[in-house]
Design a protein that fits this description.
The complex is a heterodimer of chains A (336) and B (621).
Chain A: H1 26-40, E1 47-51, E2 66-69, H2 75-85, E3 90-96, H3 97-103, H4 105-114, E4 119-124, H5 159-165, E5 170-175, H6 179-191, E6 196-201, H7 213-216, H8 221-224, E7 225-227, E8 235-236, E9 242-247, E10 250-255, H9 276-282, E11 291-298, H10 304-317, H11 323-327, E12 332-335
Parallel strand pairs in A: 1-2, 1-3, 3-4, 4-6, 5-6, 7-11
Antiparallel strand pairs in A: 5-11, 8-9, 9-10
Chain B: E1 11-14, E2 16-24, H1 29-43, E3 46-52, E4 67-75, E5 86-91, H2 94-100, E6 104-113, H3 119-124, E7 141-145, H4 147-154, H5 162-166, H6 169-180, H7 186-196, H8 201-220, E8 227-230, E9 238-244, H9 245-260, E10 264-268, H10 275-282, E11 290-293, H11 297-309, E12 313-318, H12 320-336, E13 340-346, H13 363-368, E14 377-380, H14 386-401, E15 405-410, H15 411-415, E16 417-421, E17 468-470, H16 485-500, E18 511-512, E19 517-524, H17 528-540, E20 545-550, E21 552-554, H18 560-564, E22 567-574, H19 579-588, E23 593-596, H20 605-616
Parallel strand pairs in B: 1-8, 2-5, 5-6, 6-7, 10-11, 10-12, 12-13, 13-15, 14-15, 19-20, 19-22, 22-23
Antiparallel strand pairs in B: 2-4, 3-4, 9-16, 14-21, 18-20
Classes of the chains: A alpha/beta (336), B alpha/beta (621).
Chain lengths: 336, 621
């Protein structure tokens, strides 16, 4: 058997011109995905990228893998068909806050709860970009957009809380500009067996520029974000002088030093069987809290398509059915 | 048991008898009807059934809304419908009597459960006086049987409560009717044993006792002056079973996937009256069938598109409202040119409409119900057994032409049953699929078409054939996204031409009767049986009438226009406002006459005969 050639990032690029706006956060995400894929050992022909509609959903056209640019909100449903029919394929879903949580919110919930072994990259830019600037389900209250000239009165949804509520087995948050962190999270998402839900803060420099500046700006990010590490206490701040402690059932920000020691803080446990801690972390929002980045939860659970396949294999193990037998089931009679 | 010499009753020979069981939706009348069907089929009669039930699972007991019915027509000759007029009605309560007695032919038999005609239930059914006593049923042979009491009597030695005993009432009625028509109880006792013996042997025992009690009641009581006999039908020699349309659809899909050498993926969201297809397929793991109960209709269709992309036989099933929800994703299948079969078991609409009643009003939706110029192949099955063959056809055409195919059936043929000549698997068409393979020195072009305009089906896992499909307009040949105006028009025309070209791969339209004449009755779908019978009767009367039935609606058989033009008049009976007639008029400029019934019920043969007479006499416009 000949050895397969080692793939490089460039091998994953299709011949299509990329049509995102110059300066869009999507470029970075595309570059990091192409960068980590050679390390995964996945073959081009065994991967399917599935997307819905929106700027992020053009993603499959730029990958030299198999791909489906489907219809608005249905990437998760299309991907469910791909993965259930062919569990041998690696399926990555690319969606956005509008595609994945508004029009496609229902399918997203069901994909996650079924725990298909797929990766979901949810580009969250808190705006509708492709339709030129309406508020999205993750836009903040009061946001003035083309469709909300007097400010949005639409209470936003928080993707991580949503995913956890849908029984997600792997939930993570990362950011387009933090290239190393993005790569690390993508690799973990690939390694996880089950639905890996990754929220990626992504800047839309045309319609919602600077939405996540607080989390990317060199001067502020140490105070506005918190890097989650399994087994480590929740510490943040320029001088790692602040931490998160549980006050009853709610997290609170505390200053380290004095009476408060590291041991008093919450220790992150991404493998906790109960998603309560992860959910509490998902409720920490800017500006009241630093926003956690990294893996909120990573637990093992039965995988939908494997269970489907197992039932089929059990049925086939008793011998594949014949049409002769199938047609003659039940009461039959002969007319002479 | 004491031995009684049963009085010998004369036996009257009949050609065809329609029996209807009616009662509360929890009374087990569907079960009684199904058992009677099986016994009659095994005996060798031709059969046709019509289960008719309310949308409510258990409407209040005794209410008019909760009445469930099951009609079976059995005969010693070829029949195609459940029968126009009922020969014998078994009504288990006043509401069942009230909603059904009008369908009994004059002089026909009505058997009622006398015990249920109390003040409360009479009032609930809206009876001011007791119809069993006020003479309102004098046109019929009325038999008042204390079914509840006799059922309890039959099991009184057993240690079961009266509530459990009452559940067996349907078997008493069934036993009685078995005696009346000389049916063998054996298939039913066998079925009862298989069904209940492992769960609760006492229930099996009780049901068998009650069944026999009903039978012996008929035999020993001098209630009925005559018994009836319907001889075996002269069916084409061969091996038979009974089959319902939904089951036949499921078998057809399994068979088609088998013939194609591919696994079957069936995605569906529960909906009346299509859920039985999902139920049937979910049992077929030993054929490699994967079923997916999706979160909604949209996901069912979208997942079928995803599955089709990977190379399996992808199918979704639904009924009218579900087809509406699937429309956008069907458009995606048209644009990506992937083979997906969409089964639509039609029901009464619009909106939620009449979920458990039949209608043919989704033809327009199947043909045109999508955004943009979005042609696809539309087929329609014409009888329960035909669902099998049309399901195979749907898969054959979808994979050969790389297109979604909508297969229309309806609640009437989906739930109805008939004898089915078991096909020889070797006689089924082989479904040849050749997926694209890598070619040295050749860049793969996903939209490079073959001579029939089908694009190649390259499946993930195949090295070097990676390609992207999607809903955006495709550039001819390369499949890349294209906004070029000329390319768009070319692609629109190519997609339309491909579908039109399917006409070369389907059989011609056949005519039953004279190849030209005064009148052609043109039908489609589940009205086949009624139209055929009505036309046969007209022909026997010497009228110049023929019948043609469209099973391929898009494209239509090549000779359709030629056939239609050979008759002075064309009559199109439909269970809608005239959807096929609209298409025929616009396609062929033929001034077809419509006959339209929109009552949630199938055609009666007699009403079609009347219409044929009217048209031939020049009365109809």
């Amino acid at each position: 058997m000949s050895t397969l050639p080692v793939l490089k990032a460039a091998d994953f690029a299709s011949d299509q011109d990329i049509r995102w706006c110059p300066g869009c956060g999507d470029y970075s995400i595309l570059a990091q995905v192409k960068k980590i894929l050679p390390e995964t050992g996945l073959r081009l022909e065994n991967m399917v990228f599935v997307s819905g509609i929106g700027c992020s959903s053009r993603f499959p056209y730029y990958m030299n893998t198999y791909g489906i640019h489907s219809i608005h909100g249905r990437a998760t449903a299309v991907a469910t068909g791909v993965k259930t029919a062919r569990p041998d394929l690696a399926v990555w879903i690319v969606t956005g806050d509008g595609d994945g949580l508004s029009i496609g919110g229902n399918h997203m919930m069901h994909l996650i709860r079924r725990n298909l072994d797929v990766v979901v990259l949810l580009f969250n830019n808190r705006i509708y970009g492709l339709t030129k600037g309406q508020y999205s389900p993750t836009s903040e209250l009061g946001k003035k957009t083309k469709s909300t000239p007097y400010g949005s009165v639409d209470n936003p949804i928080h993707p991580i809380s949503f995913a956890l509520g849908a029984e997600s087995t792997f939930v993570a948050r990362t950011m387009d500009t933090n290239v190393k962190h993005l790569c690390d999270v993508l690799k973990r998402a690939h390694e996880h067996k089950g639905t890996s839900f990754v929220e990626i803060y992504q800047n839309c420099n045309v319609f919602n520029d600077g939405a996540f500046e607080y989390a990317s700006d060199k001067d502020t990010k140490a105070d506005t974000t918190l890097m989650l590490e399994h087994g480590k206490p929740l510490i943040f701040g320029k001088n790692r002088e602040k931490g998160i402690r549980m006050n009853g059932v709610t997290p609170e920000v505390v200053q380290l030093g004095g009476d408060i020691k590291e041991d008093d803080l919450i220790f992150h446990d991404e493998r906790a069987p109960d998603s309560g801690l992860a959910f509490a972390l998902s409720r920490m929002h800017h500006p009241h809290f630093p926003e956690p980045m990294g893996i909120f939860r990573a637990v093992e659970a039965p995988i939908f398509e494997k269970e489907v396949q197992r039932q089929v294999d059990t049925g086939l193990a008793k011998g594949r059915g014949t049409l002769e037998k199938l047609f003659n089931e039940g009461d039959t009679w002969t007319v002479n | 048991m004491s031995t009684i010499t049963a009085p010998v009753r004369p036996i009257e020979e009949m050609e065809e008898i329609a029996v209807r069981f009616a009662g509360d939706s929890g009374d087990g009348v569907q079960l009684a009807g199904t058992q009677f069907t099986t016994s009659s089929a095994i005996f060798g009669n031709d059969i046709s059934t019509f289960p008719d039930f309310p949308a409510e699972i258990r409407a209040p007991a005794g209410s008019l809304a909760g009445v469930s019915g099951f009609q079976i027509n059995f005969s010693s000759h070829d029949i195609h419908t459940p029968g126009d007029a009922v020969s014998a009605l078994v009504a288990l309560n006043p509401a069942a009597l009230k909603t059904n007695f009008r369908d009994v032919r004059e002089g026909g038999i009505i058997i009622v459960n006398e015990d249920s005609f109390d003040k409360g239930r009479l009032k609930q059914a809206g009876y001011e006086t007791n119809p069993l006593e006020d003479g309102s049923l004098s046109k019929y042979q009325l038999y008042k049987v204390p079914i509840s009491k006799l059922t309890r009597e039959a099991v009184k030695e057993m240690d079961i409560g009266s509530k459990q005993a009452d559940k067996s009432r349907n078997f008493f009625a069934l036993g009685l009717v078995y005696w009346l028509y000389g049916r063998d109880m054996e298939p039913t006792t066998k079925w009862i044993k298989e069904k209940f013996a492992s769960k609760d042997p006492s229930v099996a025992e009780a049901n068998i006792r009650v069944l026999k009690a009903g039978y012996f009641f008929g035999e020993t009581c001098e209630f009925f002056p005559v018994r009836y006999h319907v001889g075996k039908a002269k069916l084409t020699p061969g091996r038979y079973r009974k089959i319902g349309g939904n089951e036949a659809t499921a078998l057809g899909l399994v068979a088609a996937a088998h013939q194609a050498g591919r696994d079957l993926f069936y995605a569906s969201y529960p909906i009346t009256p299509a859920s039985d297809v999902l139920h049937a397929l979910s049992r077929r793991k030993n054929f490699g069938v994967k079923t997916f109960q999706a979160e909604d209709e949209i996901a069912a269709m979208a997942s079928a598109v995803g599955a089709a992309y990977t190379g399996v036989i992808a199918v979704t099933g639904t009924s009218g409202p579900g087809l509406a929800l699937k429309a956008e994703a069907i458009g995606l299948a048209v644009m990506t040119e992937l083979p997906v079969v969409i089964v639509n078991v039609q029901r009464g609409g619009p909106s939620t409409g009449l979920p458990t009643k039949t209608e043919q009003a989704d033809l327009m939706q199947a043909m045109y119900g999508r955004n943009g110029e979005c042609p696809l192949c539309v087929l329609a099955a014409c009888s329960p057994g035909d669902c099998f063959y049309m399901a195979v056809e749907a898969v054959r055409l979808a994979t050969r032409f790389m297109t979604p195919v909508i297969l229309l059936t309806d609640g009437y043929i989906g739930n109805g049953e008939e004898p089915w000549a078991i096909p020889d698997p070797k006689s089924l068409p082989k479904i040849e699929i050749s997926n694209a393979q890598p070619r040295e020195g050749h860049d793969f072009m996903p939209y490079e078409r073959n001579h029939e305009l089908a694009r190649p089906w390259a499946i993930p896992g195949t090295p070097t054939l990676q390609h992207r499909v999607g809903g955006l307009e495709k550039q001819d040949i390369t499949g890349n996204v294209s906004y070029d105006p000329d390319n768009h028009e070319r692609m629109i025309r190519l997609r339309a031409k491909k579908i039109a070209g399917i006409a070369s791969a389907i059989p011609e339209l056949e005519v039953m009767g004279p190849s030209s004449g005064d009148l052609l009755v043109l039908g489609w779908g589940g009205t086949y049986g009624a139209i055929k019978s009505a036309v046969q009767r007209a022909q026997k009367r010497g009228q110049s009438v023929a019948h043609a039935h469209l099973k391929y609606l898009n494209p239509m058989p090549k000779n359709t226009a030629d056939v239609l033009r050979k008759y002075k008049k064309v009559l199109i009976p439909e269970l809608n406002m005239g959807q096929l007639r609209f298409i025929i008029r616009s396609e062929f400029l033929i001034d077809a006459i419509g006959y339209n019934k929109i009552k949630g019920k199938p055609f009666l043969i007699s009403e079609l005969e009347l219409k044929i007479n009217e048209v031939l006499q020049g009365g109809a416009q």
